[in-house]
Give the backbone structure.
Amino acid sequence: MATSKLFFAGSGGQGVLTMGQMLTYAAMYADMNATWLPSYGPEMRGGTANCTVVISPDKPVSCPLIYEADDVVVMNLPSLIKFESLVKAGGNLFVNSSLIEQKATREDINVYYVPANDIAMKLGNARTANTVMLGALVSVAPVVPVEMVYKIMEKTFSGRKAHLLDINKTAFHAWKAV
Amino acid sequence: MSEKVLMKGNEAFAEAVIRGGVRFYFGYPITPQSEIPEFMSRELPKRGGKFLQAESELGAINMAYGCGAAGGNGFISSSSPGIALMQEGMSFLCGAEVPVTLLNVSRGGPGIGSIQPGQADYNQVTRGGGNGDYKIPVFAPASIQEAVDILYEAPEIANRYRNPVMVLADGLMGQMMEPVLLPEPKPDLTSADIPKVKPWAISGSEKGERSVVKSLRLQPEVLEAHVEHLFEKYAEMEKELERVECESLEDAEVVFVAFGTMARLAREAMELLEAQGIRAGLIRPISLWPFPYAAFDRISDKTRAVVSVELSMGQMLQDINLGVKGRVPVRLVHRVGGMLPTSIEVVEKTKKILEEVR
């Protein structure tokens, strides 16, 4: 299997870094090689946040830095404007259409509009928007096995956070491509 | 063996030195390594150790000097400008033969520079900024696992040679997460063990002889003999500590030389070049001092250029040229200031270089 390069962008607090981490954990649990690289610096303080995940099923990840991505998730408008160009030709772009009214401009990529915040609100927890988005990504691009995403959810949402497990699992499957 | 865990570089580095026997941390926060003092302040007290936030980098290195002189396994971490402030202390540590483990999570310079990744500390860490004749072994890992393995071993190397040992990572590695297998913790070095394991240390033993740990030697003949002694040690280190990884040097048209994260970028550039029918190899120095000069003898007759991929204006070129000895043109592909090249950029620049040297 080939290496998958993924990129997640949004504003601080949208769970962008967490999405990437969940995926990296799931890859590790599936005995794959993976790297997670966040943007760091002044942008962490209230600006845009982004992270890069590289998953390599059978050999070590050559490089944690990317020049193009197979899959890009954008959670807000500035991220769409800035990172639409990062998607490689034939790759996938996931747009959080709850917050981004604008459409993507490229025609050589697959664009999926996911109303992540609206779906999360309907489920009763606005903070699961990132899980909706992660589920959308994995349903289109199965880069990690779903059971391994469950495994990290079960570890994350335990103890005092145990009540959040079911809603996150539901959120993960809440969107399907039409 | 335990199972793999996903850890942020900085936290994995800190955990690795604790497992390697470090119980004393002295530091002053600086981006991009502030997770290390944070982790140490939380973990060391639980594991029989002490965390001390110094008033400055000068304070930190001199506290480590005192700790090491008393026989403790001390650890210092900082980033480029902070490491610069510690250079005087490093000269003293070498002169007084005090073991300390050092970690530099480097960033852009000169001066306060930027907080983004950089490798322009090459000269600072391999040549040293302190006074006098001294050397500090420097290891530059390229993955978090390799960093963990080296940091786990570093306190032991420092103790064996009674000399500081440095690990050089860049800001990117400090912030990145990657699955790692953590080594088994080494047994604690107790106060009762110190007089036995480190008989030279100022451990308050009642053996009747004074232990003296100092760098001051006013009599010229005494200091000369001491410096000669240090250099016998450094000659041993040159034999024992040189580490390098070579890949695909046979038939390589172009050989990359890179350390740390840039070696991983070069590895991807190799794959991309290969797909275009250009064979590329890699020499990855893991020890920057001692530098693996001999590895360059393995460059084949088919190689038309050696390309250093660095986040500096070419600080490693001097060592590469000493290894290449003029047999092949040596060129540089670089970015600085916290900017990072992409592997595509490295490929394009390398193809241009190959046209120029044709």
